[in-house]
Design a protein that fits this description.
Strand content: 15-25%
Mean pLDDT: 94
Radius of gyration: 17 Å
Helix content: 40-55%
Low-confidence stretches: none
Strand order of the largest sheet: 3-2-1-4-5-6-7
Order of helices and strands: EHEHEHEHEHEHHHE
């Protein structure tokens, strides 16, 4: 119960790593707000864990404003923000990605962090407390070929994490990131292009521990970094990658 009575907002919380984080936070005592475009899946999970579902397009300022308002009205102050929502693109040469796809990747993976900060950080500053966790990627540290613009968006998130941490530390707000390796989530097929035994073997060969990450792996690290046990940790981008970035 390391997060007992904390209020946590998890974007992209209805599936994949976000769902794992939402479930773990609830198990650890938090009241969880699940922000996701998939309203039905978010509502189903919210019912299971006693949380609140809010349909949210994290790249839309009005939606993020409504999310912060709904969370505050239901549970009071927001203690924890997890910027988990993200998208990728199928492997392709960097000069062949469409401008539309590029804009969408940056809007969801980067602009969303700006929008949630606008709406949630001011109240955290007033309370002199808060924890923000950005779910980045090993791709932001050790890029894979043909995923250039996804890698770049996650590198942006890592730098944003460190800059936010420095600026917000005097206000009692900690900001950290997690860098997961490829995991058993809906995005895995996107990164691989196609899900075949040969492509899986190629990906696994780059992970010394020899398996993909799971939502439970990411959730365990997230719970720790957002808890009082990590009260001296800020500005960290922690690899949860089975050794891939070594």
């Amino acid at each position: 119960m390391r997060l007992k009575d904390k209020v946590a907002v998890v974007t992209g919380g209805a599936s994949g790593f976000g769902e794992g984080i939402a479930r773990r936070f609830a198990e650890d005592g938090a009241r969880v707000v699940i922000a996701d475009l998939n309203e039905a899946a978010a509502q189903k999970l919210a019912t299971e864990i006693g949380g609140l579902a809010v349909r949210t397009d994290v790249s839309n300022g009005s939606d993020v404003t409504a999310l912060a308002k709904a969370a505050t009205e239901r549970f009071g102050a927001i203690d924890i923000l997890v910027n988990n929502a993200g998208i990728g693109h199928t492997p392709r040469p960097l000069d062949t990605l469409s401008e539309e796809d590029f804009d969408r990747i940056l809007a969801i993976n980067a602009k969303s962090v700006f929008l949630t900060a606008q709406q949630i950080v001011p109240a955290m500053k007033t309370r002199k407390a808060g924890a923000i966790l950005n779910i980045a990627s090993t791709g932001g540290v050790s890029p894979r070929p043909n995923l250039t613009w996804y890698n770049a968006s996650k590198g942006w998130m890592i730098t944003a994490t460190r800059a936010m941490a420095v600026e917000l530390a005097p206000f009692g707000i900690r900001v950290n990131a997690l860098n997961p390796v490829a995991g058993e989530t809906p995005l895995l097929a996107t990164f691989m292009g196609e899900d075949t035994p040969e492509i899986r073997a190629k990906f696994l060969a780059s992970i010394p521990i020899g398996r993909f990450s799971t939502p439970a792996d990411i959730a365990a690290a997230a719970s720790f970094l957002c808890s009082a046990e990590a009260s001296m940790i800020t500005g960290v981008a922690l690899e949860v990658d089975g050794g891939r970035c070594i």
